[in-house]
Amino acid sequence: MSEKPVDGGMVGPTFAAIIGRQFKNLRHSDRFWYETPDERIGFTPAQINELKKITLSRILCDNTHIPHIQKDVFKVPSQWNRVLDCRSAAIPVLNLSLWKENVFVVS
Question: What is the dihedral of CA 30, 23, 75, 47, to 10 degrees?
Answer without folding.
Answer: -30
